[in-house]
Amino acid sequence: MRTDTPLTIYRKDYTPPTYRVDTVEMGFDLDPDLTRVATRLTMRRNPDSRNKSLVLFGDSLELVQLRMNGKEVGKRGYTLTNGVLEIHNAPEQVTLEIETATHPNQNTSLMGLYTSNGNFFTQCEAEGFRKITFFPDRPDVMAKYTVMLRADKSRYPVLLSNGNLVEEGDLGDGRHYAVWEDPFKKPSYLFALVAGQLVCQEEKYKLQSGREVLLQVWVEEGNLDKTQHAMDSLENSIRWDVERFGLELDLDRFMIVAVGDFNMGAMENKGLNIFNTKYVLANPRIATDTDYAGIESVVGHEYFHNWTGNRVTCRDWFQLSLKEGLTVFRDQEFSADLIGTESGRAVKRIEDVRVLRQAQFPEDAGPMAHPVRPDSYVEINNFYTVTIYEKGSEVVRMYQTLLGRDGFRKGMDLYFQRHDGQAVTCDDFRAAMADANDRDLSQFELWYSQAGTPHIKADMQYDAGIRTYSITLTQSCPPTPEHAKKQSFHIPVAVGLLDRNGRDMPLTLEGQDNADNGSAQTTLVLELKEQSQTFVFTSVAEPPVPSILRNFSAPVVLDVEYADAELAFLMANDSDAFNRWEAGQRLAMRRMLALSAAVQGDHALSNAQLDEGALGNAFRATLRDTTLDPAFCELALTLPSETVVAEQMDVIDPHAIHAVRVFLRRALASTLKVDWLVAYQSNRTPGTYSPDPVSTGKRGLKNLALSYVLEIDDADAHRLAQNQYDNANNMTDRIAALSVLVNSTAPGRDAALAHFFEEFEHEALVIDKWFSLQAMARNTDVATVRELMKHPAFTLKNPNRARSLIFSFCNGNPAQFHAVDGSGYEFWADQVIALNAINPQVAARLARTMDRWRKYAPALQEKMRAALLRVASAGALSKDVLEVVTKSLAE
């Protein structure tokens, strides 16, 4: 194993920058083999800093020339060690001129300046700018930028950067130039440039203030027919941010650019957002309903960063959730508001919580657990995590739950009033929320500083004599690597009570006036601040059924003893759609855990076991309830994922979980065959495709029904799926049919796969789907994946393609990945090592697959540990991967 230890960065060691940068002027001579960058910085010593040296950072750069205040700085005037350029005894005022050389064609990390399909792109968050020039590359150094791009006009006719285009022209030698000026101060991580053969859809848009702005979506030629949804989403985002938060676009133009080689989903560079093509390109032929929703969400997310991230940014990278958690919350609210109905908002909420439980709860319980505001890191790229984003969003949502929507808006207004144009901290945001609402939120800080998922145990007691109902809530939080003992969190717990007829009861909390505009409330938010608190409801006429943690009011695990009959009652009657769904999930989880234990005890599974309890009856009742939103029904009728079930087991048995989930699906398919067929037929969406919420919900339920029918795996089912595949007029229905065929014994399975590839061979995003559905198919083993890697359409260098096959298998096919012979782990190690040499950021994300290895049975643990040790011992391991495997192996 490697013995060298990379430097750990600690939040407690933060010091202000030695110098402030006022202006940045950059000139690029763009060439894919050797790009020269000339940079002029005007700087002044920061009186708040004790350090006297001028420190700049670089990575994989050639330093061609260095001049300070007009004079060349010789090698005796500076030191350059491990990418840190330090100039000693610099004066108070500095004009620094730096010339660097970089090789974009060789930059497979996709950080800094790189090429993709012959075009130039940049990615500077978190520390990519230092791959372009030497700079005090930290988010609290904000400056105004002027950028000149020079390039061959025939090869790179489009030259883009941040801000406004102020000049362009020919250079007389076959080259041309463009000068861009950004009127706002920004940190270096928001710098961007794009150059190449691109075309755009553009529209003029009139803001609420009356000012007209130019909106552009830039893509490679041949993709213009796939940009309308992204443009619509951008316009909706601009409109929503003004209506909801009073935040108007501050630039004269706003640009989105799509690139096929990208490590992330998108990047919010000021005025020049660079997107993975996955979150821009869509039309009914290539994009599913999920793709359309993803584009809307990500376009919104990056646009909303213009204020929450750009105008107000992070003081340091430990505060990353200040912008990401807040902006995820904003994009979630945007998508929910756009749906416009209560049921639609509930469906969006359920979808968001599913992501949290499937990805973030395991992270909180593993070796990479960290607070929403981490205390340390080795490689900042490893902290673009579901804890920072999704849990961070839940923390922001709790402010709104505690303060109300109006109170939250008041806090946002004060936040911008205080900090516009500044680099600030999570504490500054919390202070704005507290001060604007005259609330003490000091205890709420623990959500930022303590890792782990809190558990709440609820105990209830009804006193018929005095007609009171008591709920005692007790909180605890399991130890995490850096936090053994936890202080009590400030947790909002939304509660309702149902009477025997399933109606909400009016609530009166002992000692409080709960009237709301003269009418009694039916949901109250209980504020749990102590380890244990009892809340007493008065005037409760009969024993109620409690509905606790409504709308998932806090990111916690709720432990409450419901009988099966009570869960079925809540599933049928709860007015809170989230808890209605949650009751069904609890029923299903209870059944799946019991059956998993039976499998582990070598007991045969039989359909009779399905009828024990209320699960089958609950599914039947949901399928036959025509008043329910189809989108909600789809979620209610989807069994908990194998990953979520695994988290409920002390020792994970992936094969038992898989066997049980398949068994339950087949049993439900057989028992409810007629109901599934009725649901399939009654939720068709004939006519022209539309990704509107109603049509999307119907297709979702119809295709879920199809997947259950295919569990029967007979000729009739095969014909149904084949017919849908052959006649589909949209990608949602076509890929759904292909997916169920791939997981069946249908004789047309291989022919459909071949036809699909031939039909979409030149649509990269669709071929990603083709690889992914095969990677996650039940019968796909390691040998099959290795064969798919030899396919001419596969490349490890493209992150989307690597994710579509390798990540989909390792993370989305647990039964096959955890093969008892350890072949899945050997495959994983091969790919982590290979990706590490190409793109460390992507490699580190794949490495996270194994960080929960200690929860598995000893036989699997041994093989997983061996694979981790093999990766840890590999030569030239990046900081990204080394940090992950080191923490995973730590005792």
Q: What is the tally of beta strands?
A: 34
Straight-line distance between termini? 15 Å
Compute the CA-based radius of gyration.
28 Å
User: What share of the residues does DSSP label as strand, in percent?
Assistant: 15-25%
Total number of helices: 27
Give the overall average pLDDT. Answer: 96
Let me know the CATH homologous superfamily of the domain at 9-197. tricorn interacting facor f3 domain
Helix vs. strand class = alpha+beta
The global form is globular
Level-2 CATH architecture of the domain at 9-197: Sandwich
Enzyme class: hydrolase
Function: Aminopeptidase N is involved in the degradation of intracellular peptides generated by protein breakdown during normal growth as well as in response to nutrient starvation.
Protein name: Aminopeptidase N
Domain Peptidase M1 membrane alanine aminopeptidase: 230-444
Features:
27 helices, five-stranded mixed sheet, Immunoglobulin-like, nine-stranded mixed sheet, Neutral Protease, domain 2, single chain, alpha+beta
What's the SSE blueprint?
Blueprint: E1 9-10, E2 19-29, E3 35-45, E4 54-57, E5 62-68, E6 71-72, E7 78-81, E8 84-87, E9 93-102, E10 112-116, E11 119-123, E12 142-152, E13 158-161, E14 164-170, E15 175-181, E16 186-187, E17 193-196, E18 199-206, E19 212-219, H1 228-245, E20 253-259, E21 266-267, E22 272-276, H2 289-304, E23 313-314, H3 320-339, H4 342-364, E24 376-377, H5 386-419, E25 423-424, H6 426-437, H7 446-449, E26 455-463, E27 468-476, E28 491-498, E29 515-516, E30 519-520, E31 524-528, E32 532-537, E33 545-548, E34 557-560, H8 564-573, H9 577-600, H10 607-610, H11 615-624, H12 630-636, H13 642-646, H14 654-671, H15 673-682, H16 693-712, H17 715-727, H18 731-742, H19 749-760, H20 764-775, H21 782-789, H22 799-812, H23 814-817, H24 823-838, H25 840-847, H26 858-872, H27 879-889
Parallel strand pairs: 2-12, 19-20, 20-22, 23-25, 26-34
Antiparallel strand pairs: 1-24, 2-3, 3-9, 4-8, 5-6, 5-9, 7-8, 10-11, 12-15, 12-16, 13-17, 14-15, 18-19, 21-22, 26-27, 27-32, 28-31, 28-33, 29-30
Helix pairs in contact: 1-2, 2-3, 3-4, 3-5, 4-5, 5-6, 8-9, 9-14, 12-16, 14-16, 15-16, 16-17, 16-18, 17-18, 19-20, 20-22, 24-25, 24-26, 25-27, 26-27
